[in-house]
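Quick one before lunch.
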Amino acid sequence: MTADLFDTVADLPAREAIAEGAVILRGFARPLEPELIPALREIVAQAPFRRMFTPGGYQMSVAMTNCGTVGWVTDRSGYRYDGIDPESGKPWPAMPPVLVRLAREAAAEGGFDDFAPDACLVNRYEPGARLSLHQDKDETDFAAPIVSVSLGLPAIFLFGGPKRSDKPVRHRLTHGDVAVWGGPSRLFFHGVAPLADGEHALFGRQRINLTFRKTR
Ligand code: MD3
Ligand code: FE
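Model of the fe (iii) ion complex:
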């Protein structure tokens, strides 16, 4: 409690350790807001959001795009990281330096030095969109953490455990929050509850989430 109060007073990002290897850095992305928004616009101009299909044939409610050397894709043939955007047939947009810096600084703050992400998955939630409980295991290097950045409308993040049956704990993630997921938590089940409607001053009726990954 004292630490939280002190962080607020000192205007440092408040950190909440939520599991071994997992920490939420409240508001960590806010100072970079002016650079983040144009960088995102440029990515989306080159690789627009699209709602992909799962191997089971369901269309995801979350719309996605990527930047980096590889991007996460799903279609009827399965999940994979691919260097080519299947919609354009071209490489994904490069990861803008401001995003690389944000991911590296957050990872270091979470205890993971020298994080070098090669992929950034950009998720867009509109009201009602959700992400069911899953593990992120399409990467090859589980020693590297995943760094996530929440922008726009708040969401309820569901954080489970190593087994699908572990009861998830709910964490509210709001604009500017950054989280680092490494160590044992790297393979924990997680998801996002259906997005509640609302209006965000900068992002309108949506939530954007960036996840930085080292895939190989
Ligand atoms: C915990 N995204 O893209 S971010 C995903 O808000 C994903 O869009 C959610 O799950 C979102 O795969 C959650 C927080 C997050 C991301 C990856 C994790 C938490 C994680 C990987 C392992 C453990
Ligand atoms: Fe995930």
